[in-house]
User: Which sequence fits this backbone?
């Protein structure tokens, strides 16, 4: 096994950071292939808690190389801050390099994100306001600045030129005051100077590592149902969290990939707007939020909570080619006497097990539940599959049979060690 991908199977926040940290102990390189500082991975290591937004979680380990590859968008200011925070906390133990092709998120992208959300009013997407969508839009409009541009002597001038163009849009279209490009550059320049030496040809590094059979872990951010093409469009992020994104975003190809781990919570959460058929906008949802600590790492927003949606999980499994599943936050369900799981959707009176992610269909979708008996036992101390409560084993078996993928890891607490592996 040399190349493994860890992918969010739902709407993000499934606990990928913790599992990446756990698995990074057996890997040489951990790379990010999409997204930016909109991600928030919380890692509890002993008595320390680290929060990674853009940095691959693996760099918390000595000797591990972290790569931000081509498909990622890099905000130099927030990356410099993140590195400084991790360094101060004693967490930065590995190294980091940034693809010269990774597009930059610059201050005007954050403004554009906010203006766009404001202009949409009630129809706002509820983005993280990190400028992710506008940065990817510039990339596809072929006007973006890339990490490699930070090495050019005229980078400051190029950035200011781009800021002036955005000002035309901001004042003309959104009716906003113009921002001073010089002030923007003053803010960005120190970060650019700090990060420029980290810029590299990550494709060459990845291909060399594969030739040398180094062990590579691809760390997905967000989740499958937020994929720009395969998610609940338009309530999605602007990149490809699915396994296909790991290929286009890094230069790894499908023949290199050995395993694709889908990470799913034992229930579902979603941050921001958009359809969520199994959502529980009631006291049960509040209970899941409280017990699961369902508040965003990046924005602090409350996460919407609901029951596990198996048709959606199977959709994710097929789309990504999961070779195994990791089931997280199982301990949050410990006290329940029964646990409903969605086994089909009813759309306009028609029952279907294959979810239709078209927005109109999703809004009509009514979940059909099967109620499984709860295990009503404290799972926090469990580390071996054999001694898990029988009802939990039955619950896991039900999921495996429905989705058609084995569950090989069960997470029963926030600490890295609180994981049942080899299930
Ligand atoms: P954006 O990625 O900031 O453009 O936000 C688009 C949508 O993706 C919003 O609903 C966000 O709440 C959601 N989103 C972005 N990043 C994450 C994440 O890391 N976890 C969960 N949701 C996310």
Assistant:
């Amino acid at each position: 096994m040399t190349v493994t991908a860890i992918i969010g199977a739902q709407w993000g926040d499934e606990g990928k950071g913790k599992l990446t940290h756990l698995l990074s102990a057996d890997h040489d390189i951990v790379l990010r292939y999409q997204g930016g500082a909109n991600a928030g991975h919380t890692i509890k290591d002993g008595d320390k808690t680290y929060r990674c937004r853009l940095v691959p979680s693996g760099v918390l380990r000595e000797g591990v190389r972290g790569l931000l590859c081509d498909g990622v968008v890099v905000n130099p200011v927030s990356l410099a801050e993140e590195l400084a925070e991790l360094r101060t906390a004693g967490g930065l133990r590995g190294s980091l390099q940034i693809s010269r092709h990774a597009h930059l998120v610059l201050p005007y992208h954050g403004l554009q994100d906010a203006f766009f959300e404001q202009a949409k009013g009630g129809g706002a997407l509820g983005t993280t306001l990190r400028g992710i969508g506008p940065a990817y839009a510039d990339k596809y409009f072929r006007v973006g600045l890339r990490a490699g541009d930070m090495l050019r002597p005229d980078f400051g001038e190029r950035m200011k030129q781009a800021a002036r163009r955005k000002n035309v849009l901001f004042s003309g279209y959104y009716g906003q005051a113009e921002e001073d490009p010089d002030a923007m550059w003053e803010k960005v320049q120190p970060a650019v100077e700090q990060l420029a030496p980290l810029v590299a040809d990550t494709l060459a590094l990845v291909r060399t590592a594969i030739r040398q059979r180094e062990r590579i872990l691809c760390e997905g951010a967000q989740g499958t149902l937020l994929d720009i093409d395969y998610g609940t469009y338009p309530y999605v992020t602007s990149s490809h969290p699915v396994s296909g994104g790991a290929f286009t975003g890094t230069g790894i190809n499908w023949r290199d990939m050995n395993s694709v781990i889908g990470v799913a919570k034992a229930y579902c959460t979603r941050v921001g707007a958009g359809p969520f058929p199994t959502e529980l906008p009631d006291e049960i949802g509040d209970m899941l939020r409280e017990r699961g600590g369902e508040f965003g790492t990046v924005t602090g927003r409350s996460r919407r909570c609901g029951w596990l949606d198996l048709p959606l999980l199977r959709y994710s499994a097929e789309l990504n080619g999961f070779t195994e599943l990791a089931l997280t936050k199982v301990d949050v369900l410990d006290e329940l006497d029964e646990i409903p799981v969605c086994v089909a959707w009813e759309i306009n009176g028609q029952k279907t097990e294959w979810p239709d992610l078209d927005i109109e269909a999703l809004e009509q979708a009514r979940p059909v539940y099967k109620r499984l008996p709860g295990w009503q036992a404290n799972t926090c101390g469990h580390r071996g599959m054999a001694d898990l409560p029988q009802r939990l084993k039955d619950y896991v078996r039900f999921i495996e049979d429905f989705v058609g993928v084995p569950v090989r890891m069960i997470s029963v607490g926030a600490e890295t060690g609180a994981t049942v592996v080899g299930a």
Observations:
- The chain has a mean pLDDT of 95.
- The two ends are 18 Å apart (CA to CA).
- DSSP finds twelve helices and 19 strands in the chain.
- Residues 265-421 form a domain with the Adenylosuccinate Synthetase; Chain A, domain 3 fold (CATH 3.90.170.10).
